[in-house]
Structures are given as C-alpha cells and as structure tokens.
Specification:
By secondary structure, this protein is of the alpha+beta class. The chain has six helices and 19 strands.
Length: 312
C-alpha cells in the first residue's frame, strides 16, 4: 500500500513515495557502483550495472525499492496484486529476469525513460528460471521519470510488460493504471480542477483508488515549484497526507499493522536521495558526491530515534 508522486520544476523533477509495509522490516540506503554484479539473470548469467545508482533497500540487500542513477533516471516500485502477471518460463533471446531485480536492472542500465521504453520489448519477467526452478518474483509495477519530466508506468499484463504514459504523475497499487484513470475522470473534471470542492468531496480513504485520486489532486493543485528545493519540500508535504500511522491498518493475515515505514524523495537534476523514517522527522540526504569509495558497494543507515534541532 504505497503511493508515489512526481513534481516538476524548471530544470527537472522530483519523485516521492511512501513505503507502506505489512510486516517488520529493516531498510537502508545503498550505493551500487558501475560494473557491479547485482544479480544473475534467469539463464544463470551475471548481470552488471552500467551506471552508478543510489536508492533504498530492505535488509541491506541489493534489490532496490526506489532509486536514482547517475544520469538522473528515477523510479519506484509498488505492490501490484493480480493473477498470471508474469510468465512461468524463460524466453530465449530476451533478457530474462525476476520482477525482484528488474527495477535495479532498469536504473543501472538506462540513462533515460526513452531508453527504458525502447528496450522494454527485450525484457522478459518470469517466475521460473531456465531449469524450471521457482524464483522470487513479487507482484510489482513501476514508475519512472527523468529530467525531461517524462513519466511512465510499467505494468505487467497477461505476462507482458506494458508501458503507460503517465501525465497524472501518480502511482498507487492495484487495480490497473487504466482503471485508476477511468475512476479519476469519473470524479474530477480534469480541465476544471478549480471548480472541485476538495474540502468536501475529495476521497479520504486509504484504498489505492482513493489514494490515487487524492495524490493526483494534491500534486496538480500544489503551488508551482521554482527550484528542486521547493519541489522536495512540496513533495514531503503532500506525502505527509498519504502516510499511515502504526496501528491504523490492521493486517489479520500477518497479525501485524500496515503502516508507512519511510518517505523518500529523489531529484532528477541533482541526482540525490532524500529520506525520513516514520520515527524521526529529520530528512537525510545522499548524493553521488557523498560517496567516497565509488568502486565498491556502500551502505548507509538512518538514525531511527526521534531527533529535533535547537533554535539558532
């Protein structure tokens, strides 16, 4: 149950997301260097990164959940439940990969959204490797953007990856992107958003459809960002309205609560990661210039304790 948005400014854009998760998990930031073997493909061959990447991961493991590369391509993964989303066998002549690693592959191999979309027909996601063994391939869909402000959603549909242009600059979870757009048009006159009574009629629920509509409205009606700093600030303000406190959503399946573990926002121009935890209001920043050893994988951990600053 995650929400992602994109906010444009003159020279680029920022992409922000809430990471909502239903079971206890540790998370941290990582830097993946150029020529790094982040996984093997489903044919058993190693995959290496062309470009340097920073992003957030779970349990200090390589699969990125969101991130930015050295060329300013940014993106996020979100849960996308469905049936028969991926193939159950590899396809010769394609780059065969699990959905768990596709996002990392994309950020570490493409400079732009254009490159990513052009290569999409060559990507094949499967739930089994070339020997027929099951692999971890979660139900994901993906949102990407770059400094051209082009934004796309990549979604599995009947074992194929489909690209949707995303002028709405929002992604949540299931149902499909097309379904979200239909619901959006049913509720809002997109050409006359000023006439909408947001205080009365904006959905207040936390289901994916309500969050999609709410995030779209708040993003499009937000005041113009004149710089990356303003866009980052605005993205955190909007994401604050989408967060779920611990205990708000009870998950009977896991006897746990689903809540927002962190909020992060990436900048395409300065190529930085910013992130804050659910327990600490401090926003932490990481850029490629902060990496001292650029030839090796690096890991960075947030202070999860509640921290406040003194008046100057």
């Amino acid at each position: 149950m995650c929400t992602g948005i994109k906010i444009n400014y003159k020279d680029g854009c920022v992409m922000a997301r809430t990471m909502d998760y239903e079971v206890p998990v540790n998370y941290n930031a990582i830097y993946l260097p150029q020529y790094y073997n982040f996984c093997n493909d489903l044919m058993g061959e190693p995959l290496y990164s062309k470009y340097k990447t920073i992003g957030m991961c779970f349990e200090n493991r390589d699969p990125l959940k969101d991130g930015v590369n050295e060329h300013g391509l940014i993106g996020i993964t979100n849960e996308f439940s469905g049936f028969n989303l991926y193939a159950n066998e590899v396809k010769p002549g394609k780059t065969n990969i699990s959905s768990l690693y596709y996002f990392t592959y994309a950020l570490s191999n493409y400079k732009s959204v254009e490159e990513l979309v052009e290569d999409l027909p060559n990507i094949h996601i499967s739930t089994k490797d070339h020997r027929g063994n099951n692999v971890i391939s979660p139900d994901f869909h993906f949102m990407f953007a770059d400094s051209t402000n082009r934004c796309v959603v990549i979604e599995p549909k009947r074992t194929e990856l489909i690209c949707y242009e995303n002028p709405y600059d929002v992604m949540t979870n299931s149902p499909s992107f097309e379904s979200h757009v239909r619901k959006l048009n049913q509720l809002l006159d997109l050409d006359n958003l000023d006439d909408f009574n947001s205080a009365k009629n904006l959905p207040g629920g936390y289901d994916p459809v309500s969050r999609f509509i709410k995030a779209f409205y708040l993003t499009k009606m937000n005041i113009k960002s004149n710089s990356s700093e303003e866009a980052l600030s605005h993205s955190y303000n909007i994401m604050a309205t989408m967060t779920m406190p611990n205990g708000f959503v009870r998950n009977q399946k896991y006897n746990q609560t689903t809540y927002t573990r962190y909020i992060c926002s990436y900048d395409s121009k300065d190529k930085i990661l910013t992130v804050k935890s659910d327990t600490n209001p401090t926003v932490y920043r990481l850029g490629f210039e902060d990496i001292e050893d650029k030839d090796n994988r690096q890991e960075f951990f947030l202070n999860r304790d509640f921290v406040v600053g003194k008046f100057q």
